[in-house]
Design goal:
This protein is of the alpha/beta class. The protein has a domain of about 130 residues: Ribokinase (UDP-N-acetylmuramoyl-L-alanine:D-glutamate ligase, 3-Layer(aba) Sandwich). Helix content is about 35%, strand content about 25%. The strands form 2 sheets. It has a 10-stranded mixed beta sheet, sandwiched between helices. The chain has a 4-stranded mixed beta sheet with strand order 3-2-6-7. Helix 2 links the parallel strand 4 and strand 5. The protein is globular and about 50 Å long. It starts with a strand and ends with a strand. The protein binds adenosine-5'-triphosphate and 1-O-phosphono-beta-D-fructofuranose. The site of adenosine-5'-triphosphate (ATP) has 20 residues, from helix 8 and helix 9. Its EC number is 2.7.1.144. It catalyses: D-tagatofuranose 6-phosphate + ATP = D-tagatofuranose 1,6-bisphosphate + ADP + H(+); beta-D-fructose 1-phosphate + ATP = beta-D-fructose 1,6-bisphosphate + ADP + H(+). Catalyzes the ATP-dependent phosphorylation of fructose-l-phosphate to fructose-l,6-bisphosphate.
């Protein structure tokens, strides 16, 4: 079974404003809401691709109830912990001349809530896949993903981590199966400016040396690089298309990679499926569907990188 954990689920309120004026009253040309949070997006896309998963994490208040019922209505299993403090956040995403986002901090999670989550995770089995995705509320220490990995290290579970900064750096010693920073997050982690693919590969390999088995570096419209545990390095161009909503493109890539890997056990197929799924989400209002992914997958060709 695949489990996703979202510490900080959200309702994403997406507004389109034709010509946003700072400091003025602006009116939307279009607006809609999506259920979000990185792990939840992974579960939604896996479901779209016909793969079962269970979404774990913390929800709170009326927004949390909406998130849970929306997922369940769409056939996604959930097992959230309902925390009694505040409400799940509403993240604001505005599309105008540029895309801007304001993400909330999320509800207060206490020790007791955390213990409940760890107890659930300890019941996972060998062969399960666990996805740890997204930011954590400020009240939680940035070694929490590492702590979770330490607790289940002996169980033979493949752990995928999509996070940044210390939250990601701290897990490396526990050898995650896959990590997926984007190129900007890679720069921030090493305090460097990476201006070409060769440099990006060099730093992705450092993450591998530090413990990650597979490293996927997404680069939005510039495609993605994959440093594989078999020693090979691949690059795929992103398919060309009209970007409609890139929120969740990275999560879709993670879901696509997992789906590809589960179906074929082949890393290259998984990588290509990841790129196709990321782009399919970027090219649509909502997250990628199986038909959209299948169409794009046919157009994707890899280049093996000589390093
Ligand atoms: N403008 C684009 N054109 C084509 N494909 C795109 C575009 N933006 C994203 N993608 C696809 O989605 C993948 C992931 O995108 P990106 O690098 O933006 O992830 P991310 O930064 O983790 O995104 P987010 O945090 O918004 O989920 C890319 O590798 C690519 O396949
Ligand atoms: O604040 P975080 O947890 O880093 O990111 C949260 C978020 O921006 O990520 C998803 C897209 O990747 C959205 O659904 C959600 O609003």
């Amino acid at each position: 079974m695949i489990y996703t954990i979202t510490f900080n689920p959200s309702i994403d309120y997406i507004v389109e404003v034709d010509d946003f004026q700072l400091g003025k009253v602006n009116r939307t040309a279009n607006e809609y809401i999506l259920t979000g949070g990185k792990g939840i997006n992974v579960s939604i896309v896996l479901n779209n691709l016909g793969i079962e998963s269970q979404a774990l994490g913390f929800i709170a208040g009326f927004t949390g109830s909406y998130i849970q019922s929306h997922l369940e209505e769409n056939g996604i299993h959930t097992d959230f912990i309902d925390v009694q403090n505040g409400y799940s956040r509403i993240n604001f995403k505005m599309k105008s001349h540029e895309e801007s986002e304001v993400n909330g901090n999320g509800p207060m999670i206490n020790e007791n809530d955390l213990t409940k989550l760890i107890e659930k995770i300890k019941k996972l089995h060998e062969g399960d896949i666990l996805v740890l995705s997204g930011s954590i509320p400020k009240c939680i220490s940035d070694d929490i993903y590492a702590h979770i990995m330490k607790e289940i290290n002996h169980l033979g579970i493949k752990v995928v981590v999509d996070a940044t900064g210390n939250l990601l750096m701290n897990v490396l010693e526990y050898k995650p199966f896959l990590i997926k920073p984007n190129n900007h997050e890679l720069e921030e982690m090493f305090h460097v400016k990476l201006s070409n693919q060769k440099d990006i590969v060099r730093y992705a390999k450092k993450l591998q040396e530090m413990g990650a088995k597979n490293v996927l570096i997404s680069m939005a419209g510039d495609g993605a690089l994959f440093v594989c545990e078999n020693g090979k390095v691949y690059f795929c161009d992103a398919p060309k298309g009209q970007v409609v909503n890139s929120v969740g493109a990275g999560d879709s890539m993670v879901a696509g990679f997992i789906a590809g890997y589960v179906k074929t056990q082949d890393y290259l197929q998984a990588f290509k499926m990841g790129v196709a799924t990321g782009s399919a989400s970027a090219f649509s209002k909502d997250l990628a569907t199986a038909d959209e992914v299948e169409l794009l997958l046919k157009t994707i060709n890899e280049v093996e990188y000589e390093y």
